[in-house]
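Incident log, structure service

09:12 report received: a user says their structure output differs between two submissions of the same chain.
09:20 pulled the input from the user's history:
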Amino acid sequence: APSETIMRVTDIPHFKEAIIMSLSCEHCGYKSNEIKGGGAIPSFGTKITLRVKDSRDLAREVLKSDTAGIVVPELDLELEEGGGMNGVYTTVEGLMKKMHGRLWAANPFGMGESSVVEQQHGDDEGERCCRPMPQHVKYSELLAQLKDMADGRRF
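09:34 re-ran on a clean worker, output below:
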């Protein structure tokens, strides 16, 4: 079904001029929002630090530009400038879930013959003959920890 994207230009304090785009499909319920920076590129960036101490902090609203990086020191995780994610207005929880989704989709060990599941095949007697490689386990643990943080089970 045809859907309409609503676009607005606004000036956000301590950010810059931004183009906010919102799409909502009345037929299937799909919703999407995206924020693109408008105007000139600022001379200096702004670093904002948020320490998540409890589940209330996960509900805080954040505006991530398409060029902002994200650091989660508790997981030794750093997504460089952009982090493969567009600009978005969401909550801390929503941002972490988006990070989890992007990392999951980019995981080279999640499918095919590199898959952790594929590496744990059994021999003819049903015994496991291969252990997952350490980098597979570490990546899987990172994704699990990020999901736990996004779901409010870990701070």
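09:41 both user submissions now match this output. Likely a transient worker issue. Closing.
09:42 reviewer note: Confidence is low (pLDDT under 50) at residues 117-122. The longest helix spans residues 134-150.
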